[in-house]
Amino acid sequence: MRPCTFRSHGQLYDYVIIIKYTVAQTKLNHAIKTYPHTPPVSKLYPGNPNIHSKMRLIINKLPDAGVVHQFQSTYVASAFLLEKKNHSWILVIDYKK
Q1: In a domain, 52, yes or no
Q2: pTM for the full predicted model
Q3: Residue 6: pLDDT band with limits 50, 70, 90
């Protein structure tokens, strides 16, 4: 314990710090049970119908450019559009998980 003094609204107050910080020494075995090959849950971003049509145009160009191909999967990544300084759009895909 150590005495301390502080000033509040022009008045001096004396108090004693009695808190002692300790580190827990408890050892716990913790595990989160998951199913094998469970797809991660992705955040859904709110959509705008006008932007959705622009996104559809960009996505439809990707197979023709050879960047992507059609595939059926339970895994999914969220995508959204960002407007560039030149007022064109860029497709952003959220691969965080």
Answers
A1: yes
A2: 0.53
A3: low
